[in-house]
Design brief:
30% helix; 4 strands; alpha+beta; Alpha-Beta Plaits
C-alpha cells in the first residue's frame, strides 16, 4: 500500500510535548482546533492515531485528502487585507 495525504484535526492546541510528538507534520491552527497534515501509509496512520490517544487528545476529524488538495486550498483562500495603518507598496 502506498502513502496518502491525511488531515487529522484535534480539539484545542498542542503543548510543547504535542508539537514535538508531531514534529514531522505540517501543523496549522484552525480556530479552536489544530490540523495535522502528513503523507502516511496505513502503518503510519495507525501510529499517529496511537500518538493522539497516548497524548489524550480529542480526535475531531480524520480526512484522506485528494492529490490536488493543496492547489485547490490555495486557490480558495481569501486575499489578505492590509491592516489599518500599514504602508502600501
Amino acid at each position: 500500500m502506498g502513502k496518502h495525504r491525511y488531515l487529522i484535526t484535534i480539539s484545542g492546541g498542542l503543548s510543547e510535548t504535542g508539537r514535538e510528538a508531531f514534529g514531522d507534520f505540517r501543523i496549522e491552527l484552525n480556530g479552536t482546533n489544530t490540523a495535522l497534515i502528513a503523507d502516511l501509509d496505513q502503518s503510519g496512520l495507525s501510529g499517529v492515531l496511537n500518538r493522539v490517544q497516548a497524548l489524550d487528545l480529542e480526535l475531531v476529524e480524520l480526512t484522506r485528502l485528494t492529490d490536488d488538495w493543496d492547489l485547490r486550498r490555495r486557490r480558495h483562500r481569501a486575499p489578505v487585507k492590509p491592516t489599518a495603518g500599514a504602508a502600501s507598496a
